[in-house]
């Protein structure tokens, strides 16, 4: 059900400190904390003795002491002290998960530690670009399997009906969708020509009148996405696109972390090619995106519940091609980990 040899977002970097914190990823409980030098640590949240969650323990410098019988662990999970014991078995350890701070998030590798390469963390373009604005977004927990969310993020057409008062309008209803299938994920995209600017973006574009609009919905395995929204004056999309001097570009990064098969924690933030220091714009974008995601959440949780209790087989439509390709390839990747 889950791809384990992958980086997942555990939480916001700002939320990891010297307090012990429990998170659940892929059905596994982890304890998170930060060393005195600032490095995030992720360990199995269960003492080797009586399985008390280590998140109920205490820190001694960078060592973690169980709150039940005082068994102590290093940051790699190795047990260093057992009260009353003369010898500590080499097998006395809890699982340690590679953890990295990047892009304001703490990423945890859930598979074979020997394969954990931070260079493969989903890249965020323009993160360090001072000419681009950034709003740090939020997270929410959905009572929904993560694959319904990745499907939603490979479906540009749904914005014509779900967040119609924000990201969508009538222009999104019928325009055909192109699909790009790559080794690391799938992209659903389309240019729409001579259309009205969608409500969310109306106050953000640098021009007046109708537009050419790009919807670029890219989801990479196992569950990370970048949604690129580009608006240019009518007639410019086919020729200049994002390179038009008046192009408004917003890149929305979305990271879905499965808690278990029925729950997902969804993290997001946006970058934009304008107003880099304008806190008012950042707040307006945060508020608007949060409202649109609330609409998606209502629909996705209802879809998840209906699939759990379906009485008839669902059908697929032409617009489902990107998500079907994504799920088929992800299923193969998961199977390859479990021959």
CATH architecture type of the largest domain: Alpha-Beta Complex
Kindly provide the radius of gyration, computed on alpha-carbon positions and rounded to a whole number of angstroms. 22 Å
Largest sheet: 7 strands, antiparallel
CATH class label of the largest domain: Alpha Beta
Number of E-type strands: 18
Coarse morphology? globular
Please tell me about this protein's structure.
The structure is a single chain. The chain is of the alpha+beta class and 339 residues long. The chain has two domains: 7-120, Rieske Iron-sulfur Protein, CATH 2.102.10; 133-337, Naphthalene 1,2-dioxygenase Alpha Subunit, Chain A, domain 1 (Alpha-Beta Complex), CATH 3.90.380. Helices cover 16% and strands 34% of the residues. The protein is built from three helices and 18 strands. The protein has helices at residues 146-152, 279-308, 321-337; strands spanning 7-12, 21-25, 28-34, 40-44, 58-60, 63-65, 72-73, 79-81, 96-97, 99-102, 105-109, 133-142, 178-182, 185-195, 211-220, 224-233, 248-260, 263-272. The chain has a seven-stranded antiparallel β-sheet with strand order 12-18-17-16-15-14-13. A four-stranded antiparallel β-sheet has the order 2-3-4-9, with no helix packed on it. A hairpin with a 3-residue loop joins strand 15 and strand 16 (224-233). The longest helix is centred in the C-terminal third of the chain and has 30 residues, at 279-308. The protein is globular, with a radius of gyration of 22 Å. The model has no long low-confidence stretch (mean pLDDT 91).
């Amino acid at each position: 059900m889950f791809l384990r040899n992958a980086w997942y977002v555990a939480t916001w970097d700002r939320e990891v400190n010297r307090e012990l914190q429990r998170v659940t990823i892929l059905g596994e409980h982890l304890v998170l904390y930060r060393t005195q030098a600032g490095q995030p640590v992720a360990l199995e949240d269960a003492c080797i003795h009586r399985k008390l969650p280590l998140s109920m323990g205490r820190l001694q410098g960078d060592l973690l002491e169980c709150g039940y019988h005082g068994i102590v662990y290093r940051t790699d999970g190795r047990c260093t002290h057992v009260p009353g014991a003369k010898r500590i078995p080499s097998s006395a350890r809890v699982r340690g998960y590679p953890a990295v701070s990047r892009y304001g998030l703490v990423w945890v590798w859930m598979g074979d530690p020997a394969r954990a390469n931070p260079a493969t963390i989903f890249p965020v373009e323009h993160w360090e670009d001072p000419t681009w604005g950034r709003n740090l977004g939020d997270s929410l927990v959905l009572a929904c399997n993560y694959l319904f969310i990745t499907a939603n993020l490979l479906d540009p057409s749904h914005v014509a009906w779900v967040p119609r008062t924000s990201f969508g309008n009538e222009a999104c209803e019928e325009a055909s969708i192109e699909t790009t299938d790559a080794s690391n994920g799938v992209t659903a995209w389309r240019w729409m020509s001579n259309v009205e600017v969608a409500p969310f973006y109306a106050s953000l574009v640098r021009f007046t009148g109708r537009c050419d609009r790009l919807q670029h919905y890219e989801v990479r395995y196992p569950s990370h996405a970048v949604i690129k929204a580009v608006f240019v004056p009518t007639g410019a999309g086919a020729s200049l696109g994002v390179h038009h001097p008046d192009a408004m570009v917003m890149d929305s990064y979305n990271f879905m972390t499965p808690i278990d098969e029925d729950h997902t924690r969804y993290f997001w933030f946006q970058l934009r090619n304008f107003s880099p220091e304008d806190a008012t714009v950042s707040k307006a974008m945060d508020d608007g995106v949060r409202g649109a995601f609330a609409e998606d959440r209502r629909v996705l949780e209802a879809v998840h519940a209906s699939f759990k209790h379906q009485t008839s087989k669902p059908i697929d439509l032409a617009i489902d091609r990107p998500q079907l390709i994504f799920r088929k390839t992800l299923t193969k990747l998961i199977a390859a980990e479990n021959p």
